[in-house]
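Incident review: delayed structure delivery

Summary: a single-chain prediction request sat in the queue longer than the usual turnaround. Root cause was a stuck worker, restarted by the on-call engineer. No data loss occurred. The affected request and its eventual output are reproduced below so the record is complete for anyone auditing the incident later.

Affected input:
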Amino acid sequence: MRNIDLSPLYRSFIGFDHLASMIDAASRNEKQASYPPYNIELLGEDKYRITMAIAGFSRDEVEIEVQENTLKVTGKKPSKEDGERKFLHKGISERNFERSFQLGDHVKVLAADMEHGLLHIDMERVIPEAKKPRKIEIGSKLLENGAE
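Output delivered after worker restart:
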């Protein structure tokens, strides 16, 4: 991925410095390994689902954490001694992982479920009433507290 020069934005936009940090975080996430594979689905107008293929992991070995606008999914396998199992072919990766996703404003994680080696994380964008567009009738007067 190419580096993006954001200096023109800084000259003409004030208060958008968080945009630069979001772009930087997204470029760092692109560089991380492709394990585990995942899908991002649009289930409805404001409903989303991330599905991750985490075969071999149990519920106790996976942790999901949301902090500010970052969703972090971590999988940790307990260490096992190498002599415990002998493989003729090992195609199922059981390595530890950490994958981060940047969430948009007002996106809330609703639920997580795991079945058949797939982790499903459901999310929804919930826009507060104060942020939704509202119509202003011509000739109406707003009171000091914002009520009509």
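Verification: The chain has two domains: 6-34, 36-131.
Action items: add queue-age alerting; document worker restart procedure.
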